[in-house]
Each structure stands twice: as structure tokens, then as C-alpha cells.
Amino acid sequence: MRQNPSFTLADVAEIRRVIDANPWATVVSAPEDGLVASHYAVLLDDDRDDLTVVGHVGRPDDAIHGLGEREILLAFQGPHGYVSPGWYGDVPAVPTWNYTAVHLSGVPEILSTAENLRVLDALVARFESRLPDPRLMWERPNDGAFIERLESGTVGFRLTPTKVVAKRKLSQNKPAETIEAVIAALHAEGPYANAALAAEMRRAQDARTGGRA
Which residues cross the membrane (predicted)? Predict the structure, then answer.
């Protein structure tokens, strides 16, 4: 992902927020026989306050990626969507796509069985906890033997990134009135209504202006 000073996202707390809100990551590596990508849910490491993340892959994806032996890239995609040139007013303009994305790169650490179980448990709890009657990993009808078989088919990892590229391209290079017009258009009814992207643009704009519209 090419970086641009106008769109750089460097605040660790904001990058953590993007990862936490968008845990479905693309895992990319470059083995000798060509690029390979997989898709898994990845969480921030609860024991750290940096950008360390934990997750797992199913076997044999660990071998395909050379997990623990070579660099991988984790790509997290935040809110994104189409921006029409008609929203800019009567000025020369072309369409664009606004988005927020985070790329973390490094060689991951392979987790022990006990650590992997803890991460799997945390993944289940993270998503089941939103339901009125959550089915947690260690609760019946699951039993210990079932959980052990589940764990043995996965390889857990922890990645403390050695390279971070985070980008928030949300019309920051446009005048404030244009940004407000785009936000309003994203909130309006229509084929490109996108409340999540509008909220992300509002957040970025408020950070730049101190909340002054």
C-alpha cells in the first residue's frame, strides 16, 4: 500500500481501533512458488498495548504460508466506499474510493498448545458475546476431547509487526465544505449510502479540526 502524507494514519490508538472493529484479516505471504493469501479473524493481543495481534490458521495453511519461518502481511480493511464527483459541487472532479486500511508485517511467533487454546477461546467469546444466548468454546455440548481435536487442526500465532503501514484516505485533501458535503451524501438515501464510511470521515475530520465543523 503506497503511503501518502495527506492520508497517513500514525496514531497507535486509532490503528488499534481499526483492527479491533475490523478483525477479518487477509493473510499474505510470498513462498517460492508464488504469492498466497488466506482469510482469518485476528484479534489484538490482550496482554499488549501495542499493535501485536494473535490468531490462527487451519492446517495446512501454516505450511503453505511457512508460518513462523517467513514474513507475512496482515491486511485489515476498515469502512470504505464510492465517492461521486457530483458530491463535490460544480467543480472539475472525478470519482474516487474512500477507505481506511492497516497493513502489519513481520515474522510471526508460533503459539504453544495452551496459548493457542486461549486465543481460540478468546475468538469465540469475542463474537458469541454479542448474542443473547452465547455458545462459548468450553461449554456443553462441547467437551475436552472435541476441543483438543479442534485445536490440533489449527496453528496459533502472535505477530508483533516490524512494519506498519496505515492509511486513512477520507477526502482530507479537500476543503472542509467538500468533506461535509460528502459526509451528507453518504448519509442520504441512495445506492452509495454508507453510514459507516460517513462516521469514519467524521471521526477523521473532527481529529483534524478539534471537532469544529
Answer: none
For residue 112, pLDDT beyond 90: yes
Give the integer Cα–Cα distance in Å for 12 and 170: 18
Beta-sheet strand order (sheet of 53-58): 43-44, 53-58, 154-159, 109-110
Does the structure show a pLDDT above 60 at 213? no
Distance of alpha carbon 166 from alpha carbon 131, whole angstroms: 31
**pLDDT reported for residue 8:** 93
- Measured between alpha carbons, how far is 76 from 168 in angstroms, rounded to an integer? 12
| Contact status, residue 147 vs residue 137, Cβ threshold 8 Å | yes
Single pTM value for the model? 0.94
21: nearest Cα among 197, 189, 211, 209: 197
DSSP letter assigned to residue 139? S
% of the chain with per-residue pLDDT over 90? 90
For 21-50, give one letter per residue: b (16+ CB within 10 A) or e. ebbebebbbeeeeeeeebebebbbbeeeee
More confidently predicted of 158 and 2: 158
The grid coordinates of residue 95 equal: 470519482
Cell of 5: 502524507
Do the beta carbons of residue 164 and residue 51 sit within 8 Å?
yes
Q: What letter would DSSP give residue 150? A: H
Cell of 24: 477479518
